[in-house]
Amino acid sequence: MKDHREQLLDQQNWDEVTFINDYSSLMGYLYMAIKGLGFLVLTWTTVVLLGGFVSMLHSKDFWCLTFITLVQTAGIFDVVLNEKLRYIVDALIALFGVEFTCMLGDSDPLLVNSTRFVFACIFLFVQILVLTVVLCPLAIIYVFGILMSGGISLWRLIKHDYSNPEARGVAPNLPRALDTLYYLAVLQGVLFCYRFILRLPQNTLVKKVVRDEYKCTNSEVQVVSKYLYETRRGCEKDPSF
């Protein structure tokens, strides 16, 4: 596979290689834009709003900003939805694997005594309860947090009821600061959706171009897909990769 990839790298004048490189560069720039907006939103919420206007915020805006801050803290490190889904699935498989091991131990499954089986069932029930109550909401926030952040921001922009009758003093810049934050979060959500949509047809495009134009086998299609994946991941770290 390495030899095939090096051969592809040497064929920079191929239309297919140019397409892959341009596509990967676009995905890399979108990744950096989403991540940069995440840093900006996180800084804006913590320093400008929660730091300077926290006593003047309406309760709805306070909790919205708190949620957005939580989402951005996790989202700025990785905005790749497929990678997040894979991490969560691997974690769930590992969790249930541990439960299965605790239940059976080193003994034959048919020889497990009733006391040990009861304790294992109780332990398994507690773990499922924790998974349902705590981990599932956190997993949903981790995977779809940027979309939820954009949706909440769009809702607050539509409502636009920023005034807090219980606040002391007047903060004429507070509505502008909130508008700026919510617009940034909405823009981040739009870019995230756009990037996700662009990723959907990439495997189909590779198969169509490579298989239809050059009649390649499945193994050769996988080589091109691997090259596309590695190039895209490299451009996400550096668009000039």
In short:
This protein is mostly helical and about 240 residues long. Helices cover about 80% and strands about 0% of the residues.
Note down, in words, how this protein is organized.
The chain is mainly alpha-helical. It has one domain. It is built from eight helices and no strands. The longest helix has 46 residues, at 114-159. The protein is flat, with a radius of gyration of 24 Å.
Oligomeric organization of the protein chains:
single chain
What is the helix fraction of residues, given as a range? over 70%
**Number of self-contained structural domains:** 1
The unreliable regions are none
Distance between the termini: 20 Å
Shape annotation:
flat
Rg, alpha carbons:
24 Å
Total of DSSP H or I helical runs spanning 4+ residues: 8
Transmembrane segments: 29-50, 62-81, 117-147, 180-198
Keywords: Membrane, Transmembrane, Transmembrane helix
Task: Throw out a few tags for this protein.
mainly alpha; 241 residues; flat; single chain
Task: List strands and helices in order, with pairings.
Elements (H helix, E strand, L loop, with lengths): L1 H9 L4 H38 L6 H17 L5 H24 L9 H46 L14 H26 L2 H13 L3 H20 L4
Keywords: Membrane, Transmembrane, Transmembrane helix
